Amino acid sequence: MYQIPSWLQRMYRGVMWRGDQSRKVVYLTFDDGPIPDVTPQLLDILKREQVSATFFMVGENATKYPHLLQRVVREGHRVGNHTYNHLKGYNYSTIEYMNNVVMADKVLNGTDLFRPPYGRITFKQKKALSAAGYKIVLWDVLTHDYDAHYSTDTMVSIIKKHVRNGSIINFHDSLKSNERMLAAIPQVIAYLRNEGYTFETL
């Protein structure tokens, strides 16, 4: 599944699935970093291409590699919260989950963007996050870059087929995604630019 069905989107009202649909704009997003084996190479590509993106960071990784968090911010990208320990919401109580989100928030310096790992949270967790002032962001196009069964060519084809105005495209700056994601990003940027899209942060 590359796009979330409309009926499921309606169940999660108040969650952001797409951005501005009135313009040819897309939002590149990257989950699970920052890590030194992947994030610097990705940032080099984005800098060369003059593209801004949004990074949903795991607090534990940002704690280990504060220089990468600082570089992401310094180079004009936006940071979002992805919990401190990459928690799957269904496995934790709302209190446990929110405590973990707050831990990450302290490292990430108060971002108001949040993306649940695996895209999974309970309705109670969603309500608590919204009450705490977070904008919960999911995605419009899932690349499956973390899955070795999906080649770089397949990932690019997914985006070509499903991208539309306001698409939020989900990538990962993780070890699982490393080679395929880094190979795909320049191709994706070139294609989207040729189609008239611009790139913005959330």
Please give a structural write-up:
- By secondary structure, the chain is an alpha/beta fold.
- 42% of the residues lie in helices and 14% in strands.
- It contains 8 helices and 8 strands.
- Strands 1, 2, 3, 6, 7 and 8 form a 6-stranded parallel beta sheet that branches.
- Strand 6 (141-142), helix 7 and strand 7 form a beta-alpha-beta unit.
- Helix 5 (94-108) packs across helix 6 (123-131) and helix 7 (152-162) runs parallel beside helix 8.
- The longest helix is centred in the C-terminal third of the chain and has 17 residues, at 178-194.
- The model has no long low-confidence stretch (mean pLDDT 94).
Q: For the residues shown, what is the average pLDDT?
A: 94
Beta-strand segment tally: 8
State the share of residues found in helices, binned by percent: 40-55%
Gyration radius, to the nearest Å?
16 Å
> What oligomeric state do these chains adopt?
single chain
Order of helices and strands: HEHEHHEHEHEEHEHE
Number of helices: 8
* N-to-C CA distance: 23 Å
